[in-house]
Specification:
Blueprint lengths: L6 E5 L3 H11 L5 E5 L2 H11 L3 E5 L7 H9 L9 E5 L4 H9 L4 E4 L2 E2 H12 L9 E11 L2 E10 L3 E6 L8 E6 L1 H4 L3 E11 L8 E8 L2 H13 L7 E2 L1
Parallel strand pairs: 1-2, 1-3, 3-4, 4-5
Antiparallel strand pairs: 6-13, 7-8, 7-10, 8-9, 9-12, 10-11, 11-12
Helix pairs in contact: 2-3
Length: 238
Amino acid sequence: MRTVSKRMIIVDDVNTFIQHNQTLLSRKTFELLTVTSGHEALFRARNDHPDLMILHLYMPDINGDAVCRELKSDSTTKHIPILIITAQGDEEHCKLAADAKCDGCIAKPIQKEDLVTAAEKHLGIPPRKHHRVRTLIPCSITDEDGKREGTILNLTPEGVLIKTEPAPWLGDIIKVDLSHDVMGKAVSLQMAVRWTNEAGGLCTSGAGCEFIAAPPEVLEWIKDATASLPEEVDEVIP
């Protein structure tokens, strides 16, 4: 299991935006907290001392630039890197963010890798190590809810994204079976559910699972398969 050494807070009043960012960013080796108001952002910043904050510019109570300005003027929080999300091509919004002395400005629609790269930069986390590709590999999943059919939606040498109903629970250890049509023989894998994304969000629902136990020849096959296929197309956050 990965060790979490960094903490990030996302502040936005739009739940779907938060859900999407959780999906994109919680796969990395840091703790992700979310809040939905400027007042709560100030409280959490002063009490949790995050390593990075991402603020939406316009909030229902206190706008992101005002939150940033207050934190940057406080000696106990001025060291916290702050990124502000603004509307696309709006120079006035970018100026508000810059005047608040934020550490970076990201315009919508946000390219996924722009957001992840910015987070990695300020958290000091290395970029993604593994190539990831889209797949539609049929499988079966066995956990406490029993055995059922599923589909592997993307694949890396480290793990997979699985679509099945009902979805496994975060933290579950599950058995994933591949038929002989995939590798020429039936294969069973043991995996840990590291993150989940519910249906109705802005990106594909499913469970992100990490390999715990797998035959060496399976891992080698996955490594070869991901190296020979194009990397997954990145999503855009509206």
